[in-house]
Design brief:
2 helices; alpha+beta
């Protein structure tokens, strides 16, 4: 089953970047996060997490490298 991808007017797939508190993540992820308090998650339009990274800028760069259009979620 294919997951629908939201399309913007330029034909690019949109993904959403949001801040995630490390304290709210599973123990295994918290251990890997080291001394970070926040990570950045990249989600598709259905809310499925595609990536979890330490840096906001990196989240946007990774999305663009995969031909996705990142949008910040506040």
């Amino acid at each position: 089953m294919n997951t629908p991808i939201e399309i913007n007017t330029q034909g690019n797939r949109i993904v959403y970047v949001k801040t995630v508190e490390v304290s709210e993540l599973p123990r295994e992820v918290r251990e890997q996060a080291g001394d970070l308090d926040q990570l950045y998650a990249v989600h598709d339009s259905d809310g499925q997490q595609l990536a979890l990274v330490a840096d906001r800028k990196l989240a946007f760069v990774l999305a663009r490298e995969h031909d996705l259009s990142p949008v910040a979620v506040h």
